[in-house]
Amino acid sequence: MGLGDTPLLFKIALGCGIAGFLFHLVGLATPYWTSITIAGGTIFEVDVHTGLWRGCSGNVCGTVSNPASWLEAAQAFAILGFLAGLAAIVLAILYVFVEQLRKDIFYIVAAVGNLAAAGCIFLAVVIFGSKITNGLSWSFGLSIVGMIFHGVAGVLMGVNRFQNKPQ
To answer: Which residues span the domain enclosing 19?
Structure first.
């Protein structure tokens, strides 16, 4: 069995999983979870934006040092979501292309991995969003989009499993 012999629902699920992984990867790596402009009267404005790992004020950026415990929790769940998404994609691809690994357990763990990725990313954005209520920005949004794609991938893989029971 190759990708051509794979059911359409599984292909869509795999595409959603890959899209979710990429959206979350960009959201995780970029320093735009928050973005605000600080006006200093009529003379200057400074753009301040931060992510999970870096913060920038104007053109000067640096790592977040001594983060608050809520930020560490958001970082941890975001990384766990990244790893679960990566594992889900790798297992799904191995399931399709490696005959010896075409077992139910690989399929089930790939589906659960997508759902776990969605759950971990959900916790990361809820923790971060509950503490930062103003100025949430596009990196935060990309991680939310990644979460949605991972969730859809996990559900589609589950539906496909019951429609076309894998070998």
So the answer is: 14-32+67-163
The closest of 7, 1, 24, 5 to 156, measured between CA atoms, is 7
Number of domains composing the chain: 1
Give kind and range of the element (H or E) at residue 23. helix 8-29
- Is residue 24 in a domain? yes
pLDDT (tens digit, 9 = 90+) per residue, 16-31?
Answer: 999 999 999 999 999 9
Which CATH number does the domain housing residue 106 bear? 1.20.140.150
Using the structure block, give the residue that is written with the tokens 């983060």.
67
Q: What whole-number distance in Å separates Cα of residue 45 and Cα of residue 162?
A: 57
Taking the CA atoms of 4, 6, 12 and 13 in sequence, report the sign of the dihedral they define.
negative
Does this model's pTM top 0.85? Answer: yes
Q: Is residue 76 in a domain?
A: yes
Q: Residue 38: what are its φ and ψ, rounded to 5°?
A: -100, 120
